[in-house]
Design a protein that fits this description.
By secondary structure, the protein is of the alpha/beta class. It folds into 6 domains: 7-176, P-loop containing nucleotide triphosphate hydrolases (Rossmann fold, 3-Layer(aba) Sandwich), CATH 3.40.50.300; 182-243, Helicase, Ruva Protein, domain 3 (Orthogonal Bundle), CATH 1.10.8.60; 248-366, Up-down Bundle (Zinc Finger, Delta Prime, domain 3); 387-415; 419-530, no CATH class; 536-567, no CATH class. Helices cover 54% and strands 8% of the residues. It is built from 26 helices and 10 strands. A 5-stranded parallel β-sheet has the order 2-3-4-1-5, with helices on one face. A hairpin with a 2-residue loop joins strand 8 and strand 9. Helix 9 (202-212) runs parallel beside helix 11, helix 14 (280-296) runs antiparallel to helix 16 and helix 16 packs antiparallel against helix 17. The radius of gyration is 44 Å and the shape is elongated. The model is unreliable at 384-435 (pLDDT under 50).
Length: 567
Amino acid sequence: MDNFIVSARKYRPADFHSVVGQKSITTTLKNAIKNKHLAHAYLFCGPRGVGKTTCARIFSKTINCFHPTADFEACNQCESCKAFDENRSYNIHELDAASNNSVEDIRSLTDQVRIPPQIGNYSVYIIDEVHMLSTQAFNAFLKTLEEPPRHAIFVLATTEKHKILPTILSRCQIFDFNRITVEGAADYLAYVAKCENIEAEPEALNIIAQKADGAMRDALSFFDQVVSFAGNKLTYKAAIDNLNVLDYDYYFKLTDYFLSEKIAESLLTFDEILDNGFDAQHFVTGIGSHFRDLMVCKNPETVKLLEVGAGIKEKYLEQAKKCNIDFLYLGLNIVAKCDVDYKTSSNKRLHVELALIELCYILTNQKKKADELKKAASEKTEPAKNVQTNEKSALVVDIAPQIAVRKSNINRSAIMPSLRDAKEGKIPEQKAEVENKLIDFEPVNADANEEFTVAQVQTAIKLFADKIKNAKPRVSNGLLTPSIQISENKIYLFMPNLTLKDEIALIYSELSGFIKSQIKNSQIELVLEVKTIESQKPIFSQSEKLTYLIEKNSALIELKDAFKLEF
């Protein structure tokens, strides 16, 4: 019985041409060999299983080949290439930094670097997982890395570039390896299946490539695993059963249930998925990926982002036609929230089931919102004069005050005084325009300039308040007990609060004109102010209370004496 060799080793690329998904890097390395522009240190970065160590070995083999091809690949015929293939070459040295990360290990390496190669031109030192070196080991390695012997080339490989010291990074040419695409991995798996005489369905290879998540080595390992399970006929069903991958059909079926608002069927399907041993959160992330794939199918330019087989792609395109963008967007939001809150939920199954119910209600909520907007738009555009029934008339009556308030707010913003006027406490008459005239009065002659008293101004203001009490009762009440002060040709009207001042400002022009007509003086200027309440000492004793009241009304003294009251 022959020894079995896993596909990851058996089909490991032996030249630059066979490396999957890293064309820019392999082209750069080949051009460097062609032009003899070899650096003394390289750093290969990227996720696991994408070909970092493989490219380092191919590069080492090629630069020591005695007879490279016209395409600058290794010939595989010379003594150096044969020694490499048979794993007996002394020109290539591999070091695992995960287990050789001390200063002593680096010192041993620097001593070994001084020895020239026996065959070939270069000694290549491949240090895998270089980020595992200690800080002291990095520092011990710096000098050798910066100025190695002419025959020494270092190739460092790591999955975590951010952990490497900047002093190391500055001494290397850095190559960032890409994740292997699903299409690229599936094509290479098809090549392996053909070499092994295995009949494989494209959907099965695509599922394996997706499960590998960008790592070619993982894809080959999964391929061997499924082949061991299914034999020489690799089917889609065998792949999803062996790799514990949820079938696409579940997602297509659930999406149809969401569109049809079938809550019971959705919950039963979720129960079936749990019975099959799948994790609930894995199911939630799968729903999110499904909605994402449906969304990219809505635009012909983004269909290329769909990484599935040809047969399943047709299903996606067909179902995407049934879904609107809003449905998919809201669905993604619901799924994302469910995924984020899943770990903190005390009842995880109920948490997912609530998300499924929300997904079933998306279209209902969309329709409800659309009806509300349509109703609001129709109510806004319908003229009140066309309303004939009592019910509609009542509706117009209810809406009319709201319209008046909006109109009042608009006019108020138009007549508000400027910042400078506000600071000076005055409101120019030409800015105080109101939409409706409250009272009629004869304007005073522009030359009128008769003398007046505070009592006359108080009488005019109270008369004005009495005339507007039906139209503006709040303002009328506020004007009944005004605090007035006259200074030269200015009448200061003090309001108890800013709100009342703002309301009086709306009728400033009429109030000012009415006062002028009553006192026969057109030269005065009305100024509105807010009177601040001065802090006063608390009153405790009876005598203090009496003194305070007498200050407010001196007639209390006569009342006290008349009734011979004592306090």
